[in-house]
């Protein structure tokens, strides 16, 4: 018997098929409004079989209402104050930096990995925070590499 290993991906919701997006909507409605899954399925307009086929395979990256630890990896230009600018964006978002790992710059680019912790209040600021970091001059790349 061959066991299939599980692989996980972070995917932008906009590229998912409608059936998967509708399952996400059902889960959001159930969580926010406290109605039954059956009522939410009817409201969204998908079949129960579609919902139950995918429901166990979809989990939001950031679940609201609890602390979340996640890691980001960045490629930064080796410039004075570069990391400080990023720390200021993170602090303004209400996110806590748990660990910092920085490699020696090679060809003017330093790889930095940060472990960050959000709470329920700062959770909704994550996307904005990541966009602001990406917009900083000297940030070549930013990737979320995992969450706990």
From TrEMBL:
Segments forming domain ACT: 71-147
One of the Pfam families matching this protein, by short name: ACT
InterPro entries attached to this UniProt entry: ACT-like_dom_sf (IPR045865), ACT_dom (IPR002912), UPF0735_ACT_dom-cont (IPR008310)
SUPFAM superfamilies: ACT-like (SSF55021)
NCBIfam families according to UniProt: PRK04435.1
Protein name according to UniProt: ACT domain-containing protein
Organism annotation: Psychrilyobacter piezotolerans
């Amino acid at each position: 018997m061959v066991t299939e290993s599980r692989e996980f991906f972070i995917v932008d919701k906009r590229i998912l098929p409608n059936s998967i997006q509708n399952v996400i909507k059902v889960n959001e409605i159930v969580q926010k409004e406290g109605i039954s899954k059956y009522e939410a399925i009817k409201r969204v307009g998908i079949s129960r079989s579609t919902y139950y086929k995918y429901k166990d395979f979809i989990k939001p990256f950031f679940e609201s209402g609890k602390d979340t630890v996640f890691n980001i990896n960045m490629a930064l230009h080796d410039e004075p104050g570069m990391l400080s600018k990023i720390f200021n964006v993170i602090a303004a978002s209400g996110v806590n930096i748990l660990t910092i790992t920085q490699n020696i710059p090679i060809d003017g680019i330093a790889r930095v990995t940060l472990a960050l912790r959000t709470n329920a209040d700062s959770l909704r600021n994550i996307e904005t925070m990541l966009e602001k970091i990406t917009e900083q001059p000297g940030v070549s790349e930013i990737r979320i590499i995992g969450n706990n």
